[in-house]
Design goal:
Blueprint: E1 9-10, H1 11-16, H2 21-34, E2 44-54, E3 57-62, E4 67-71, E5 77-80, E6 92-93, E7 104-111, E8 117-126, H3 128-145, E9 146-155, E10 160-165, E11 168-173, E12 179-182, E13 194-195, E14 206-213, E15 219-228, E16 230-241, E17 246-250, E18 257-261, E19 267-270, H4 273-287, H5 322-330, E20 346-352, E21 360-368, H6 371-376, H7 388-391, E22 396-397
Length: 406
């Protein structure tokens, strides 16, 4: 079943040091609020990671994946903002020379004279080193005060969630001060999560919570709650439509045919044969009750059971069951595309489903090369399911963390 409930992972920042979307959006709101009231439209802006600096220009890889050359004239304001801050009054004025490759910037201004060029009026900077340090601090806090599991009950009247952490029930008390974040669509990256509400959380959802625990661990006063709803699928690919980015398979557990959409955010991986054989052997052992079963993780399982919490922040470590170790291995495999798949391939999938009654889902992670594993668990047994939190793109901070709520 979905293992090691790890919502906040730091590997997202490992390659590009992601500034969480909530901070960036807030910064944008601050800029717009401070613009002159008479301005007919807000200034254009570019957001991304600095890849190069030359003279008075920056080369920026935007969050949309474009390369933009930003010219910074002498009169432009350059401000450095601490990670997590959304108040420009706390920003420090710096010079262009203080910006380095890997830093995150939000640039306001106007389009340049040529394509993919931009003229800056203001540059807001967050240093990559500051972001990394903040994420380390947050990860330590989640390791100490975080827990997670499957939601078994929601009491909207009292604001209390009952969460199954293995065989244990934990009461999660929320308040007006609790920050809610919700994962949806095709991504488990924190920067793609949206501000949420208590009413969005349903029984069966995966949940991760940060807060003050009671002495006996039976309750926790929630400061941050991160939730999401994911499905585990396994079976043989029946059809592939590369043009539309979709495939179909008959799920081993439900025996229903499901249409799976593969997007640019989907992780498509192939398990090496030796690893597949090893995990298949462990899965057989789990089916015989000799180990490798559900043990740790706090994510939902197809049968509705929860595995014991791994303890860390979303993105924390996994348990020692086969499923948890498999999730950790998959996160390190190279990414593939739908073009690398073929009809008849055995796959295991973690997917999101916007409509609970729909036969269409969007893949978060698809793992092929799992024929031996499925042969060892022909019913789609829980011992070898994957955790979405460990697979979505690395290990990250409130996915990583940063900035503000997560």
């Amino acid at each position: 079943m979905l293992k090691a409930f790890a919502v906040f992972r730091s590997a997202t920042l490992r390659a590009s040091l992601i500034l969480p979307a909530m901070v960036l959006s807030a910064c944008g709101a601050v800029l717009m609020a401070q613009a002159p009231a008479a301005a007919p439209v807000p200034a254009a802006r570019q957001l991304g990671t600095v890849t190069a600096i030359a003279g008075n220009s920056l080369t920026l890889k935007t969050d949309a994946g474009q390369q933009v050359v930003v010219s910074v004239p002498d009169g432009a304001r350059i401000l450095q903002l601490a990670p997590g801050s959304t108040d420009l009054k706390t920003a420090q004025t710096i010079a262009l020379k203080d910006i380095e490759a890997g830093d995150r910037v939000l640039v306001t201004g106007k389009a340049g004279d040529s394509a993919n060029s931009f003229a800056a009026a203001r540059v807001i900077l967050m240093k990559s080193s500051d972001i990394a340090q903040k994420h380390e601090t947050e990860q330590a806090d989640w390791q100490k005060r975080g827990t997670g599991g499957i939601v078994s009950a929601v009491d909207a009247g009292t604001g209390t969630l009952t969460v199954a952490v293995g065989a244990k029930k934990v009461a999660v008390a929320t308040s007006a001060k609790t920050q809610f974040r919700r994962y949806a669509g095709d991504s488990v990256k924190f920067e793609d999560a949206k501000p949420g509400t208590l009413t969005q959380i349903q029984p069966g959802d995966q949940l991760r919570v940060l807060g003050s625990k009671s002495d006996d661990g039976s309750s926790i006063q929630a400061e941050v709650v991160v939730s999401g709803s994911f499905k585990n699928l396994a079976g043989l690919i029946a059809t592939i439509d590369a043009a539309s980015g979709t495939l179909t398979l008959k799920d081993l557990t439900t025996k229903k045919t499901v249409t799976v959409t593969i997007t640019a955010n989907s992780n498509v991986r192939t398990l090496p044969p030796q690893a597949a054989a090893m995990f298949a052997a462990r899965a057989k052992g789990a089916g015989n009750g000799s180990g490798g079963g559900a043990s740790g993780g706090g994510s939902p399982q197809p049968a509705g059971q929860a595995e014991a919490s791994a303890g860390g922040r979303p993105g924390g470590g996994a348990g020692r069951s086969a499923g948890g170790d498999l999730s950790q291995l998959v996160s390190r495999l190279p990414n593939k595309t739908i073009a690398d798949l073929k009809v008849g391939d055995a796959v295991m999938i973690v997917a999101s489903q916007s409509d609970p009654g729909s036969a269409k889902v969007t893949a978060v992670t698809l793992l092929s090369g799992v024929e031996p594993i499925l042969a060892a668990t022909p019913s789609g047994g829980p011992a070898m399911t994957l955790s979405p939190w460990n697979l979505g793109g690395g290990e990250g901070a409130p996915e990583g963390g940063g900035g503000g709520g997560h």
